[in-house]
Amino acid sequence: MDKIVVKNLCFKYKENKEETLSDINLMFDNRSTAIIGQNGAGKTTFVKLLKGLLKQNSGEIIVCGKDTKDSTAAELAKYIGLVFQNPNDQIFKSKVIDEVMFGPLNIGMSSETARKNSVEALKILGLDNLIDENPYDLGLSERKLITIASIVAMDTDIIIFDEPTIAQDFAGKEKIKRLIKELRNKGKTVLTIIHDMDFVAEVFERTIVFNKGRVILDGNTKDVYSNEEILKKAYLELPHVTQLCRQLGYNETFLTVDDFVEFYKNN
């Protein structure tokens, strides 16, 4: 079942002469999906429209059966959660647990369920030892993870991450990778806007390429990264492993080191 259906979507900011998004037609099921493209391609505008933070000029967006044009962002919050790119735009409480519980409480969860979900989300991200800390006393990496936990705790059917790997070291990325896979296994629809091509290759099943407000590629991630010429036109690079294997003369598209090692062992 498609949790998000987008038909003939067009959007233009009042101050712009040209449309930011033109004739977007997409459907989202349970596959984890990365939305990639250069800055200005329309990615952030698109997810703000999904979340109800903006309203389209024309076309239709249906989220979990709700028409976003007839729904407020607050009403849609029960179905779709968005983690902002900059955690400082999201955090406003003086205690980690209060920050993470705010979203669940705001959509009508009981205090008991909100706390349980919040503690579980913090545990998955290795932050349960910081429950009573002030978020602003923590580093950028930890604040980003806190904002992720605060949306995960809301237990929405759809979760959107805006640049989830910002400020993360290897350990932080591994935590987010495990979280996304766990959410996927629970039947959640996970979307991300991201510039980290290696992370996309390792984690996401489907990849959509935006360029100048239009969708120019959409498919499983391996197939998308096999379209090198189209990606070049969108000013996007291949994952590092894919680039290296191409330079070594392999025509096969490898998304991870493990993919290449397995291929090498069997050939």
TrEMBL record:
<dbReference type="InterPro" id="IPR003439">
    <property type="entry name" value="ABC_transporter-like_ATP-bd"/>
</dbReference>
<keyword id="KW-0547">Nucleotide-binding</keyword>
<comment type="similarity">
    <text>Belongs to the ABC transporter superfamily.</text>
</comment>
<dbReference type="InterPro" id="IPR027417">
    <property type="entry name" value="P-loop_NTPase"/>
</dbReference>
<keyword id="KW-1003">Cell membrane</keyword>
<dbReference type="GO" id="GO:0016887">
    <property type="term" value="F:ATP hydrolysis activity"/>
</dbReference>
<protein>
    <submittedName>
        <fullName>ABC transporter ATP-binding protein</fullName>
    </submittedName>
</protein>
<dbReference type="GO" id="GO:0042626">
    <property type="term" value="F:ATPase-coupled transmembrane transporter activity"/>
</dbReference>
<keyword id="KW-0813">Transport</keyword>
<dbReference type="Pfam" id="PF00005">
    <property type="entry name" value="ABC_tran"/>
</dbReference>
<keyword id="KW-1278">Translocase</keyword>
<feature type="domain" description="ABC transporter">
    <location>
        <begin position="4"/>
        <end position="237"/>
    </location>
</feature>
<dbReference type="GO" id="GO:0005524">
    <property type="term" value="F:ATP binding"/>
</dbReference>
<keyword id="KW-0067">ATP-binding</keyword>
<dbReference type="InterPro" id="IPR003593">
    <property type="entry name" value="AAA+_ATPase"/>
</dbReference>
<dbReference type="InterPro" id="IPR015856">
    <property type="entry name" value="ABC_transpr_CbiO/EcfA_su"/>
</dbReference>
<dbReference type="InterPro" id="IPR050095">
    <property type="entry name" value="ECF_ABC_transporter_ATP-bd"/>
</dbReference>
<keyword id="KW-0472">Membrane</keyword>
<dbReference type="GO" id="GO:0043190">
    <property type="term" value="C:ATP-binding cassette (ABC) transporter complex"/>
</dbReference>
